[in-house]
Amino acid sequence: MSLFDKFKPIADVRNELNRLGVTPFGAITEQILSATEGIVNGHRVILAGTNNYLGLTFDPECIAAAKKALDEQGTGTTGSRMANGTYAAHAALEQELADFFDCRSAIVFSTGYLATMGMGSTLAGPGDVILLDADCHASIYDGCRLGGAEVIRFKHNDPSDLEKRLRRLGDRAADTLIIAEGIYSMLGDRAPLAEIAAVKRECGGVLLIDEAHSLGMLGKNGRGVAEEDGIESDVDFIVGTFSKSLGATGGYCVSRRPELEQVRFAIRAYIFTASPSPSVIASTRAALRIISQRPELREKLWKNAHRLYNGLKSMGFRIGPEPSPVVATTVDDRDQAIAAWNELMNRGIYVNLVMPPATPTGDCLLRCSVSAAHTSEQIERILEAFDSLEINRDGQQE
Ligand code: PMP
């Protein structure tokens, strides 16, 4: 077997898609017209698969802050946080994140992937145990694997399975790293964090929650599911990203625990990569302020999310278990999913086509993410386009 034989199955799928004239993976956004519109693969489309939950990529305050930073501090830091890449603005953002989450300290990373991967791989090493929700994101899995800890999965969103597995660990439970997400990225379902926190209180463990898809959406201050569920004091580490509701790139970890500062200089994903550029840090700081100052964005996001979710549900599509800014329609046949994705493009709607192994259920998904920047008309156009699709409609209608 040659070094490259293992890539053949992936290449075969791509060749087949090319033959069909469909390019869902690696679609090119030729023009980005606004937070919700663009020209993708030659089609003028409503962007309904961007994770741009609050629509802040085109916010004037964020853009002005980024431009000012670009003028004053240049295009890049050209160095790691630990060497020449910590500017005053990186330190300021860390303080602002800590204040926002009412935590003791924060670490800023260059991407969300590096934040989750870096924390998972550093906190738990050989001899340690990680218990993670089976549906956790690839970056979490990668980190857990890299660190060399024993990795045990508990059933998705099943606190009693977590409890059973923690009890089996006996004395080791107290130092077991438990990992879950706030809102899950593929089906938009929310973690039962109150119950997970109760299990942790009862059996022990160190709890890390990835709020990548819930920052700016839930909780009185927009801090996510942990805030919404009133269990922030039970969470040891929160990780997340700047690339969704904050409209940039980068990641963070915040904690109430003093140990976060000891961990910082052991995280290879923090040490051995260049820090985010000044313009990214500046727009992220502006976006974080906006989350605090403009709760109406959250309200608009949920209004749009409910309308899309309820609309697709009433059409009989098989969608996630609860309304959420991530609304994914399950299509059990790959060819149907590809044809549906293509048809949506022809009708001016861009969504994410997600295929196994990236999907939790092994089915294909047409994944929409809703934005506060979508107008009601745009949401109706997305619904109309879905209504024209010839895919399974065997979902439960209320
Ligand atoms: N965690 C979760 C749950 C995610 O969905 C993602 C990205 N989709 C990440 C982490 C990584 O974030 P980023 O894309 O900003 O690197």
Description:
The protein has helices spanning 8-19, 60-73, 88-100, 112-123, 138-147, 159-168, 193-203, 225-228, 259-264, 268-271, 278-293, 295-314, 334-346, 376-387, and strands spanning 29-32, 37-40, 43-47, 105-109, 129-133, 150-154, 177-181, 206-210, 237-241, 251-255, 326-331, 349-350, 352-354, 364-369. With 398 residues, the protein is α/β, with parallel strands linked by helices. The chain is globular and about 55 Å long. The site of 4'-deoxy-4'-aminopyridoxal-5'-phosphate (PMP) has 14 residues, from α4.
Bound small molecules, which ones?
Answer: 4'-deoxy-4'-aminopyridoxal-5'-phosphate
| DSSP strand tally | 14
Distance between the termini: 53 Å
What class, by secondary structure content? alpha/beta
Major sheet: size, sense and barrel closure?
A: 7 strands, mixed
User: What's the CATH architecture name of the largest domain?
Assistant: 3-Layer(aba) Sandwich
Pick out its properties.
Aspartate Aminotransferase, domain 2, 14 helices, 7-stranded mixed sheet, Aspartate Aminotransferase, domain 1, alpha/beta, 39% helix, 398 residues, binds 4'-deoxy-4'-aminopyridoxal-5'-phosphate
Helices, strands, pairings?
Layout: H1 8-19, E1 29-32, E2 37-40, E3 43-47, H2 60-73, H3 88-100, E4 105-109, H4 112-123, E5 129-133, H5 138-147, E6 150-154, H6 159-168, E7 177-181, H7 193-203, E8 206-210, H8 225-228, E9 237-241, E10 251-255, H9 259-264, H10 268-271, H11 278-293, H12 295-314, E11 326-331, H13 334-346, E12 349-350, E13 352-354, E14 364-369, H14 376-387
Parallel strand pairs: 3-12, 5-6, 5-7, 7-8, 8-9
Antiparallel strand pairs: 1-2, 2-3, 4-10, 9-10, 11-14, 13-14
Helix pairs in contact: 2-11, 3-11, 4-5, 6-7, 12-14
4'-deoxy-4'-aminopyridoxal-5'-phosphate is lined by residues 111-113, 116, 137, 139, 181, 185, 210, 212-213, 241, 243, 251.
